Amino acid sequence: xxxxxxxxKPIGIVxxxxxxxxxxxxxxxxxxxxxxxxxxxxxxxxxxxISCSICARVCPCASIEMVEAEGHEKTYPSIDYNTCSFCGxxxxxxxxxxxxxxxxxxxxxxxxxxxxxxxxxxxxVPEIKDLVPRMKRRTEAYxxxxxxxxxxxxxx
Amino acid sequence: MSMINVAFGNANQVxxxxxxxxxxxxxxxxxxxxxxxxxxxxxxxxxxxxxxIIAVWFERKFLARAMLRVGPYYCGGRSGVLQxxxxxxxxxxxxxxxxxxxxxxLFALSPVMVSxxxxxxxxxxxxxxxWVLWDVGSLGLPMFLAIMGIAPLMPVxxxxxxxxxxxxxxxxxxxxxxxxxxxxxxxxxxAVAIMAGSxxxxxxxxxxxxxxxxxPQFIGFIIFFIxxxxxxxxxxxxxxxxxxxxxxxxxxxxxxxxxGFTMMAEYVMLQAWTLLFITLYLGGYSGPxxxxxxxxxxxxxxxxxxxxxVVFIVLLRCVFSRPRMDQMLKIGWNYLTPIxxxxxxxxxxxxxxxxx
Lengths: 156, 356
Known about the structure:
The structure holds 2 protein chains of 2 kinds. Helices cover about 20% and strands about 25% of the residues of chain A. By secondary structure, chain A is α+β, with helices and mostly antiparallel strands. The N and C termini of chain A lie far apart (about 60 Å). The model of chain A has no long low-confidence stretch (mean pLDDT about 90). By secondary structure, chain B is mainly α. Chain B has one domain. Chain B contains 14 helices and 2 strands; from the N terminus they run H-H-H-H-H-H-H-H-H-H-H-H-E-E-H-H. Chain B has helices at about 1-10, 10-30, 35-40, 45-65, 85-95, 105-120, 140-150, 155-160, 165-195, 200-205, 220-230, 255-280, 300-315, 325-350; strands at about 290, 295. A two-stranded antiparallel ribbon of chain B has the order 1-2. The radius of gyration of chain B is 24 Å and the shape is globular. The model of chain B has no long low-confidence stretch (mean pLDDT about 90). The interface of A and B includes residues 14 and 26 of A.
C-alpha cells in the first residue's frame, strides 16, 4: 500500500503552495534592491587606481585590458562584458579598491561592440531610473521563518 | 405585374403572408423556448465556450500560484482575465497555414470535428430531472459512450489529413491512449448501470438518492477518474501532446484558429467526461445527503461539483509527472482493465445476492 501513500503525498505537499505568496517581482515596474555583495556591473574609480594591472592579470576570462584614458597619464582597465563572468577576482585582488561592484544588471545592448566598456564609461554609474524607465518602486527581499517575502523600500 | 400577382397575390395578400411568417416564427420560438434555451445556453454553446474561456484562464493562474509565480498579469489588470481574449484575437488574426498536397476542406474541418464530437455528447447529460436536451430514455449511457467512442477517430483523422509523418505518429499515440483508457471507463460505467438497474442517466441519478455510488463502488470511482484523466488528455496523461518533448503531436500542422479549435477540444472533452463522472458517481444534480435526505436537487449542485472536480484535476497537473507511453499502456491494460472487470463481477454478485 506504499504506492498509495506515494501517490497522495505530493498532492498534500503541493496544495498548500496555492495559498502562498508569489515569489516573483513584476520587474519593469518594481525592481529588487540587491544585497551589498551582489556582483553586478563594475564601477571604476580613477583617483584610487595605481595602474598595477593586477586585475588584468588575475582575470580568468581575459576580459580586462589596460588602456589609456583621455586626461589621465597611466593605463586603466577596460572590461569586455562579452566574456566577463562576474567572478569578482578583479574586485577582490585590487589593492586600492579601485574596482567595485554596483547592482546594475541591465547590460543589454543592440550591438556587441558596445559591451566593451572603456575606463571612462566604467567610472560613470547611470541612474537606475534611466536604465528602467517604467520602474515605479524598489522592493527588498526579506526572510520570515517560512518563506521569502518582499517589501517596498522606496518609490522612484 | 401579373406574374407577381400570380406568385404572391396582391399587396394585401403579401402583407398577410409576411405577418403570417412573423407570427409563425414567434409561435415557434414560444413553443420551443426551452430547447432553444438549452441549445444556446446551458448544455449548449454558451456553457461550452464560457467553460473553455474560464478554464484556460483559471488553469494558467492556478498553475502560476502553485509554482509561486503570478501568471497572466498585464491584460485586464492584476487578474489577467483579458489574456484569454487577447490570445483568441491573436489566434484568429494569425495566418492559417495549409500545407501542400492537403485537401484544404477536410484539413480545415478536422479540428472543428475534434471539438464537436465531445460537444455532441454533452447534450445527453441531465442537468436536472427536466433539463435534458436530448432525452433518449434508457439509451442515455450507451449513447454517450458510443459518441465518445468516435472521439479518438477524430485526432487520427486530423493527423492523417495533415500529410505529415510526425502528425500521423502523434495521432496513433492518441488512438493507443484513448483505447487503453476507454475500456476501463466502459466497464466501470457498466457496473454503475447494473447497480442503478437502468441505462437512463436520470434514473441513475435518482438511484443515488440514498448514497452516492462513489461509496459502494469506490474502486470503480477511482478507475473512472483515472480514465477521465486519460481520455481528456490531462496531465499526467497528456502524452500525445507532451508540450515539452514533442512538437504538439497530431496538432503540429494546425495553426491560427484551427489550433485554437484543437485546444478547445481538450476542454470540451474534459467537460463531457467530468459531467458524466459526476452523473454516475457523485449524485449528478442531486444535493448533498444529510441524515438520509437529499438537500434540494438543482442545476447549481451539478455545477458546484463540476467546479470542485475541475479544480482538483488542474491541481493534479502541477503535482504529477508524465509517464512514458509504455507505462501508460501498462496502467491501462495491466491494471485498470482487470480491476474494472473485477469490479463489474463484484457488483453483479452484490446485485444477484441482493446485498445492495
